[in-house]
Amino acid sequence: MFAVSRIKALLPLQISHPIAPALPHAAAFFFAAPKSALFSIYPAVNQFPASPSRTPIMGSSGPMFSRVQNRNFRPAEAAGDLTTSYPSGEIHDIVDPMFAGKTTSLLRRIQSESENGRSVAVVKSDKDTRYGLDSIVTHDSLKLPCWSLPKLSMFRQSLGVDAYNQLDVIGIDEAQFFGDLYDFCREAADQDGKTVIVAGLDGDYMRSFSAVLDIIPLADSVTKLTARCELCGKRAFFTLRKTDETKVELIAGADVYMPVCRQHYVSGQAVVEATRAVVEESPQKVQIG
Ligand SMILES: Nc1ncnc2c1ncn2[C@@H]1O[C@H](COP(=O)(O)OP(=O)(O)O)[C@@H](O)[C@H]1O
Ligand SMILES: Cc1cn([C@H]2C[C@H](O)[C@@H](COP(=O)(O)O)O2)c(=O)[nH]c1=O
Ligand SMILES: [Zn+2]
After folding, report:
1. What pLDDT, in 10s, does the model give residues 74-118?
2. Which of 6, 249, 273, 284 lies 20 to 30 A from 151 at CA?
3. What residue ranges carry the coiled-coil annotation (predicted)?
4. What is the ipTM of this complex?
5. What is the DSSP track for 79-142?
6. Does the annotation count 174 as an active-site position?
C-alpha cells in the first residue's frame, strides 16, 4: 500500500480572492451576478452556529439565509384528490469530474436564488472535511456556509421543521456521498415543493456510477460541466487518481486527483495500474504526476 501525501495547506476560511470570472475552462452553467452580491450574503455566516453539524438541535436555526415567507410548502392533506394543487418543486443536477466548477456553479445558483428573494440553505456530506464542516469551499477558495450531515434524512430535523417549511431552495454539495439522495430529492421536490440544486461527481476515479446519476429521472435539468485536462489542456471529463489507493471514497484534492481527457484517463490509468503491480512486488512510496 502506498502512502498518500496529505493535503498540505487547507484553504483559508475567508474568501481570499474575487469570484473567478465564469469558470474559464468549464462548459459553464453560468449565473451572471455581481461579485458584491455574493459577498453580501456572507455576513449570514456569523448569525448562525459555527458548526451546525456539531449542534444539530431541533428547532435551532442553521446557516439558512433570511426569508420569512413559505411560498412552496403545502400540506398534503388532500392527497388523492386530483383537483389538489401539488407544490411545484424542481430538481437541477450539476455533474462533473473534479475541478470543473460544480461547487462554483452551486454557489452562484444559491446566490442568485437568494437575491431573487428566495430562502436558501446548503448541505454537504460530513465525509468531506477538507475545509471544515461549516462551509462549502471551491477549489479557488470561494465559500458559503452550509450544514454538514451524514444523511440527508437528518436535514429537516437539523434545521427544525418550521425552518425547513420556510425554505424555498436546498443546495446539496458532494452529493455523491449521500446514499439517500434519491429519496430526499423526490420528497423535497414532489411533496414539499422545494427547488433542489444538486452538485456531485457523476463518476468516481474508476468512472463507475455515482448516486448523483440516480436522480436524473427525477430531474428538471442535468448539466455536465467539464474541466481542463491537466496533461494536455483539452476538455476533461474524468478524474484520474494519481495514487494506488483503491477504496472508492478517498477525500482529497489536487494532491491525489487530476482532471483528464479521455486519452489521458486511459493512459494514466494504465500507468497507475502498472505501477501498482510493480510496487506490490517491491513496496515503496510512489506518487504519479
Ligand atoms: N487541477 C486543479 N487544481 C486546483 N484547482 C483547479 C484545478 N483545475 C481547476 N481548478 C480551479 O478550480 C475551480 C473549480 O472549483 P470547484 O467549483 O470547487 O470545482 P468542483 O466542485 O467541480 O471540483 C476552477 O474554476 C479552477 O479555478
Ligand atoms: C474521483 C473521486 C473523488 N472522491 C472525493 C475527492 C473529493 O474529496 C470529493 C470530490 O470533491 P470536488 O468538490 O468534486 O472536488 O470526492 C472520492 O472519494 N472518490 C473518487 O473516486
Ligand atoms: Zn489530456
Report:
1. 555 545 556 667 778 999 999 999 999 999 999 999 999 999 999
2. 6
3. none
4. 0.97
5. TT-TT------EEEEEEESTTSSHHHHHHHHHHHHHHTT--EEEEEETT--BTBSSEEE-TTS-
6. yes
Q: How far is the CA of 278 from the centre of ligand 2 (A)?
A: 26
261 pocket-lining for ligand 1 (C-beta < 6 Å): no
> Which atom in ligand 1 lies closest to the alpha carbon of residue 96?
22
Burial of 140 (0-12, 13-18, 19+ CB in 10 A): middle
Q: How many CA atoms lie within 13 A of 109 on its CB side?
A: 26
Q: Where are the alpha helices (DSSP H) in the chain?
A: 35-40, 102-115, 155-159, 161-166, 181-186, 211-214, 262-281
Cα(189) to centroid(ligand 1), Å: 29
Please state the pTM of the whole predicted model.
0.75
pLDDT category of residue 273 using cuts at 50, 70 and 90: confident
